[in-house]
From TrEMBL:
Acetylation recorded as keyword: yes
InterPro entries tied to this protein: Beta-lactam/transpept-like, Glutaminase, STAS_dom, STAS_dom_sf
Domain STAS residues, every copy: 344-415
Gene name, Swiss-Prot/TrEMBL: glsA
Pfam families assigned to the protein according to its UniProt record, in alphabetical order: Glutaminase (PF04960), STAS (PF01740)
UniProt keyword annotations, A-Z: Acetylation, Hydrolase
UniProt cross-references to HAMAP family, sorted A to Z: Glutaminase
Region (Disordered): 410-437
Organism of this sequence: Streptomyces glycanivorans
Name recorded for this polypeptide: Glutaminase
Length: 450
């Protein structure tokens, strides 16, 4: 027994709630997929610390099918960049089924990389050389997202290769437009192979968590793609990942997601969780019925909807006061009086742009008079991103120009290296190990010598 079992219990509850749903049917246009067990139902969740939770058939392997698409898109983006990839495949929801013939009139460019036409182009764009064949790169990439070596279900691959005329037809149509610098027809078999890569619901949750964690696999710690590529992929998943039900999914579930016709479904809560479900019974758009229900309920239960403001109000600034509350006030009447006017602002946690704005606002609130010195205590700050730092530096620079003295308590150098701070703020910001030292120094500095 352990406290974190409560997370598993939440998954078990959802599993029990939806396991009895018998609606939907297995995909049969790839005959081998009908051999899956329609009762199988697994759920998995992986946190940004790489903690993994699951319920039901979360270790049952199935083929990725369309769940492979966002990850191969990530590989193409990482190899060629967004501008080049966007020349050949768009980023607009098609509003059509996954296997629709959705090619832009005139250019023949597929609407997005989540429908089959766009995915075939995406696969064709993956660099292919004798030393490093495209499929080898794809399998390595998928494996790094999952954090373990994945393999191909040869029977499913053979089954789709034998019946995949519609996808071949799409590839011929794309080739007929004559603009693509690579051959989409030759890429179809590679596409079938990537669709036949085998994984479990737990693997899918790790893959989603890697996108949610800005491209770093939270279980292995390996950086798989850049934060920019991870964001680009999540954006396309949000608008196009669920085909012609993408709008409704974003409205109700509120997460970037991707489904596949074998019954796999994953969703990413950016900076929060990777979620996944497996259940082979599909609705009309090719999405797992139980998976859809369970991830929808989970998103609601955990408050994961993207459009709900995740920032907790007031969680950044922990103290706005004057230094006279500190235990050791400097002696001397003048020094003490000034000490009473030294403002203190303490911040905590991770600072992003939003949090940095709170800190700057608190600095303004902290003094009764414009010239009163202020101490910014950053000891409880765990990190700051570059946007937050730039804003803090700019704010401190304004204070300096307005003649307000500032000192920071920053033994961990959260404000960045002294050289950068000097350059950005135009001053040698005094840094201290404790609030008392900083307050004393501020009071004495204002009181002047003697
Ligand atoms: N391999 C499948 C196909 O191309 C993938 C489709 C899907 O999962 N939606 O038809």
């Amino acid at each position: 027994m352990s406290a974190s079992e409560a997370v598993t219990d939440a998954l078990r509850e959802l599993h029990a709630r939806f396991a009895g749903v018998r609606e939907g049917r297995q995909a049969d246009y790839i005959p081998e997929l009908t051999r899956s067990d329609p009762d199988d139902f697994g759920l998995a969740l992986v946190s940004m610390d790489g903690h993994s939770y699951s319920a039901g058939a979360a270790d049952t392997p199935f083929t990725l099918q369309s769940v492979s698409k966002p990850f191969v898109y990530a590989l193409a983006l990482a190899s060629l960049g967004l501008d080049e990839v966007s020349r050949w495949v768009g980023a607009e929801p098609s509003g059509e089924a996954f296997n629709a013939i959705s090619l832009e009139p005139g250019t023949g460019r597929p609407a997005n990389a989540m429908v089959n036409a766009g995915a075939i182009v995406t696969t064709a764009l993956v660099p292919d050389s004798r030393e490093q064949p495209a499929f080898g790169r794809i399998l390595t990439c998928l494996s790094r997202f999952a954090g373990r070596k994945l393999d191909v279900d040869e029977d499913v691959h053979g089954s789709e290769a034998a019946t995949g005329d519609r996808n071949r037809a799409l590839a011929y149509l794309i080739r007929s437009t004559g603009t693509l610098p690579v051959d989409p027809v030759a890429a179809v078999d590679t596409y079938f192979r990537q669709c036949a890569v085998r994984a479990t619901a737990v693997d899918l949750a790790v893959m989603a968590a890697t996108l949610a964690y800005g491209g770093v696999n939270p279980v292995t710690g390996e950086r798989v793609v850049s934060p920019e590529v991870a964001a680009q992929v999540l954006a396309v998943m949000a608008t196009c990942g669920m085909y012609d039900s993408s709008g409704d999914w974003l409205l109700r579930v509120g997460l970037p997601a991707k489904s596949g016709v074998s019954g796999g479904l994953l969703a990413a809560g950016p900076a929060r969780f990777g979620l996944a479900a497996y259940s082979p019974l599909l609705d009309a758009s090719g999405t797992s019925v139980r998976g859809h229900a369970a991830l929808g309920a989970l998103s609601e239960r955990l408050g994961l909807h993207l459009m709900k403001n995740p920032a907790l109000p007031g969680s950044t600034v922990t103290l706005v006061t004057t230094a006279d509350v500190l235990p050791s006030a400097p002696s001397g009447r003048l020094a003490r009086a000034l000490h009473e006017r030294v403002g203190v602002v303490a911040a905590q946690g991770a600072l992003d742009f939003t949090a940095a704005e709170r800190v700057l606002y608190a600095l303004d609130e902290s003094g009764s008079e414009d010239a009163d010195p202020v101490i910014l205590d950053l000891r409880e700050v765990t990190g700051a991103d570059s946007d937050a730092l730039a804003l803090l530096h700019a704010g401190l620079s304004r204070l300096a120009r307005e003649g307000r003295r500032a000192a920071v308590v920053d033994p961990g150098d959260r404000l960045g290296p002294p050289d950068l701070v000097r350059e950005r703020t135009g001053q040698d910001l005094p840094r201290f190990g404790s609030r008392e030292e900083a307050a004393e120094q501020c009071a004495r500095a204002v009181a002047g010598p003697g």
